[in-house]
Amino acid sequence: MDDLGAGAPGPFPPMSPEARALGDGAAWAVRLAGGRDGDLAVRLAGSAPRPRFPRGPEARREVAVHRTARGLLELRERAVCPVLDSVNWTGDGRLVLGGDLPLPDGVPAAFVIAANGRAEETVLPLGRIGQRFTVEFSPGRVASLAGVLPLPAGGYRLAARVGEGADAADAPAQVDETLHERLPARCVVDGRAFTLTDVRGESPVLTAENDLLPDERGRRAQDDLRDGFYPRVRAEPLRRAVLFESYFGRQYSDSPRAVLEELRRRDAPFEYLWVVDNGQAEVPDGVTPVRRLGRDHFEALARSEYVVVNSHLPSWFEARPEQTVVQTWHGNTLKRIGFDIEKVQFATRDYHERLAGEVGQWDYLVSPSPWCTSVLRRAFRFKGEVLETGYPRNDVFFAPERDALAARVRAAVGVPEGRKVALYAPTWRDDKFYRRGKYRLDLRLDLEALWRELGEEYAVLVRRHPNIVDRVPEAGRDFVFDVSLYPEMQELLLVADVLVTDYSSAMFDFAVTGRPMLFFTYDLESYRDSLRGFYFDFEAEAPGPLLSTSAQVVDALKDLDAVADEHAAAYRAFTERHCPLDDGKATIRVVERVFGGAL
After folding, report:
1. Which of 57, 59, 430, 598 is placed for a possible disulfide with 345 were both Cys, Cβ 3.0 to 4.6 Å?
2. pLDDT above 50 for 16
3. What is the distance between the alpha carbons of residues 235 and 213, in angstroms, rounded to a whole number?
4. Residues 6 or more apart from 177 whose CB is under 8 A from it?
5. Per-residue H/E/C for 226-254
């Protein structure tokens, strides 16, 4: 046998691509020595059994017989892997998988569905009897902090997570030879297709398609909708409808949500539409979901009497004279935005040109404060009416039911009873990315150190920016909670006893609560001077300490009362400047100004 782990010379290739892809520890080619023409490669019949031989502590590793893509016999040393040999879709869209996982009794194991190219994963319980396992779930209805939603469009790796906590390790699933002929296995659930297939005959991949119809997918189809369908429906009469969108259809949240709920409270005479990207937002009964970039999206933007958004509109949108467009935006700002960014690294070169065309579509721009009004006017070069009302999304901090809501949020996240909550919510770094739209988690906060020092007192909620695709690392048990998928940021701020952030707009919202803030600004100089730039002297006016090391964050959390006392004057000045309109009635002011004549 030749050890292929380091790449053996001769007629036999180095470790096969399959073995490398699975992250195996070592692989050996098997050959017969001494033939008339030299050594002979050993081939393995497609129907031959694939025995596995356990080894290592608790038999968590094994040596397994494999057949490479060239049909050669190969031995691999690896973690014990789940091998799928059965797959079935039920009539209600549940995927039932079964197979072999030869772990000793008592070794904990779970099943993991991990997204390719981003951090999200779903962990499911495994049913085990002896060496057999089964797992059953519906890809179209997966429970998470975001709600019960379909898996986002994309590909998913399947694996077994063996062990618990820091001792856990993922072993990628494989497909038994007998299952190949039954793949791909496809099912349509609520209009979306999910397909289980295998890569190179070995690794199973679950693919979730988007919710666009065949004649809506692809560049040509989108061009036809933009250039043909949209102009036609734009000529039709307006609908008595309000179209809402939050963060490109990824959430039911933020100021658009507050406006919608106030209109419904008043029983306003409108049809309510909400843009949803690939089923990734739950909307309440009585609100019609609109598939982002589907035919219904083009029609809704063409014919809705009102459009309320908190971020950018599609470049093809052209507001009709009788339409009203309300831009709530999504945060007061320390860092420069819009035309004030000289070197745009997060968008295409025509960003400023497209922004100018979009801003011309807005009728109203919501501002949280007089100070921010001047910033927004300049940054967006907006000539229309600014609604200086405060942010509707912040009314939740004054709601009579806020304590009951906070208790529900703590329970949904799983925060242990009696623990204080530290919410870590950093912004993203324009220059830390894998590719455009896929940004890295530049995590400098030592979560392990926080756990050692504060694990009995605190729970740490980590909120990744939506542009970040990396996973939040674990630390301790019931200590770090990744709440990045929780749809409503204001509800997380509501439960936080302290906010740890950097340059995020969350600081302006959280200041309404009066609770302490810590600023982990390890890259202050480069962010301020090179990357974005600031609208005010942050070092002089920050409502909390600027901390450059993780150890300083730990020390500040240990003595939070003293830190708060030290920065009380700066906190008051910050709140007076940036939050003077926050009184729980911002939504009412927006609704009465925009919709007053129609109520």
Report:
1. 430
2. no
3. 24
4. 46, 47, 48, 50, 67, 201
5. HHHHHHHHHCCCCEEEEEEECHHHCCCCH
